[in-house]
């Protein structure tokens, strides 16, 4: 792995940073989060057009830039620093890779150009689990995150030559506004059940009800999606269980989420350092006290370690299956974001605990992300199991006994 960024990667990051500095101040973020869509649609179209964020990792033949997970991770680190409310994560890091990897050639030709242009946004509907479970990052590989053949989740049934979906899911990222839903559904009954992905275009479809939820982090919109006898088309081969395929793709969203969390932690630390330089106590800046210096130094180390892990995970995701590496990087980044934002609130003092202060936005993003994409210990446990660490320890223990 070459740790140095290329000239193209540096230019992509610079372009995104400049655009966000102009159009994504804190007041803009708060206003965008309160809109019906949950993000600034005009800014999304601008970013999708130039520098082409929506299609950054989509192949050139489908209208994308043809870049890889590393470039997408660099961009999401910048959007994490700005807390940009946008469909970027759900569309570019989740929906587009799934369509590219699992969709038929006809589906790729229909969906990918519109996803790459930003005209169409997407969301993954995981009824009975979380994104890490669906992508094989936390060990739940039995397909239970789609319903498991039991009551609940989303069930799929044949209807002549087509399919119909019935069920509901909560905590769907950008589910209230996405123009394309990829729904994980269970079919085949309990004994011979399997998990399939179905493409649903909710606009104009009867039986689809979507409601935006009230959540801790308003910059990360979530929705409840209800499906009542909704027509759908399988993504790719209708006879193929998608669990193993999704687990192979897990490194990409994990690396991107890790990079975004690093951006959150990095910006929270930057704000705290700036505050420590100007806030005076006992006639001197609080940043001059040794105890504060030590705390800030520890936070800096945590951010840098998480950044290195996220970059390595992004590189690994572009060079083959890397779910275990991505899971470890995500755990490191989520933990760093929680630690840094929590310390940021403490070091800001009384003003830090007010909801109106900027540092609270970063604290809420870090807390929400750990709930959505963690917990950290399960990410690490699954990576350890995948690497055979527990099996090796048990063998050594058996030999000793």
From TrEMBL:
Keyword Oxidoreductase recorded: yes
Domain spans labelled Acyl-CoA dehydrogenase/oxidase C-terminal: 255-386
A molecular-function term among this protein's GO annotations: acyl-CoA dehydrogenase activity
Domain Acyl-CoA dehydrogenase/oxidase N-terminal, chain residue ranges per copy: 6-119
Cofactor: FAD
InterPro entries assigned: Acyl-CoA_Oxase/DH_mid-dom_sf, AcylCo_DH-like_C, AcylCo_DH/oxidase_C, AcylCoA_DH/ox_N, AcylCoA_DH/ox_N_sf, AcylCoA_DH/oxidase_NM_dom_sf
Keyword annotations: FAD, Flavoprotein, Oxidoreductase
Source domain of life: Bacteria
Sequence similarity: Belongs to the acyl-CoA dehydrogenase family.
Name this polypeptide is given: Alkylation response protein AidB-like acyl-CoA dehydrogenase
